[in-house]
Amino acid sequence: MPAAPDAPGPSGPVPGRGPLEPWPSTVDWQPISTDLIWVELIRLAIVVAVGLAVTAVGWALSGHWLFGLAVAVVALLGGWRAIAIVRAVRAWGYAERENDLLVRHGLLVRRLSIVPYSRMQFVDVSAGPLERAFDLATVQLHTAAAASDARVPGLRPTEASRLRDRLTALGEDRAEGL
Q1: Which distant-in-sequence residues (6+ apart) come within 8 Å of 151 by Cβ?
Q2: Residue 14 gets which letter from DSSP?
Q3: DSSP category for residue 137
Q4: Residue 104: which residues within 8 A CB-CB, separation 6 or more?
Q5: Considering the entire predicted model, what is its pTM?
Q6: Is the peptide bond before 8 cis (omega within 30 degrees of 0)?
Q7: d(CA 76, CA 83)
Q8: DSSP string of 17-76?
Q9: Predicted confidence pLDDT, tens digits, the chain (178 residues)
Q10: Which of 31, 125, 132, 174 lies at a CB distance of 3.0 to 4.6 Å from 118, suitable for a disulfide?
Q11: What is the C-alpha to C-alpha distance for residues 30 and 95, in angstroms, rounded to an integer?
Q12: Which strand (E) or helix (H) includes residue 95?
């Protein structure tokens, strides 16, 4: 019987597949809200508008062709980033397992964070003005190691509160033996 597509072969991992390709298929991944796309696009639009305004004013005042090139570069990079935002938000996901929380994200550089419940120190829920306008929140997990902190953006406040409460309870249960 042949090995499953993501299972290791007889001489190791299946060729062409790294540790993150594909994401673990045995995990029930939960997507984040696609409304986060609008939040990120609005943030981008503000940055691009400021960049275009500054370069356009410089171009109008000096008439130098480099400012015209800068306007084109800002517009081109803004368009490229808008496409990347849509794909990046769709790449986010999280999964609650028995002993840990998995968080995945990234397009070019894929990142899979595995945070054991016993290592969590506290869980934070935050929502800035744009997130609140779109009824979204971010769950931030804090551990003793700063590099292992994970976050799950783009959650509805009720789901963020549920996840916070569950992670806090599981963290307290698992940490009792330490």
Answers
A1: 103, 138, 139, 140, 141
A2: P
A3: E
A4: 20, 23, 29, 91, 92, 93, 94, 110, 111, 112, 113
A5: 0.77
A6: no
A7: 11
A8: --TTSS--TTS-PEEPPTHHHHHHHHHHHHHHHHHHHHHHHHHHHH--HHHHHHHHHHHH
A9: 444 444 444 444 444 455 555 566 778 889 999 999 999 999 999 999 999 999 989 888 988 889 889 889 999 999 999 999 999 999 999 999 888 899 999 888 888 888 888 888 888 999 999 999 999 999 998 887 766 668 999 999 999 999 999 988 887 776 654 4
A10: 174
A11: 6
A12: strand 93-96
CB atoms inside a 10 Å sphere around CB 136: 23
Residue 150: CB atoms within 10 Å: 21
Which residue is it, tokens 């940490």?
175
Taken in order 7, 152, 108, 149, the sign of the CA dihedral is: negative
- Give the C-alpha separation, 150 to 141, whole Å: 5
Residues 6+ apart with CB under 8 A from 79: none
> How far is CA 45 from each of CA 49, 57, 58, 85, rounded to the nearest angstrom?
6, 18, 20, 12
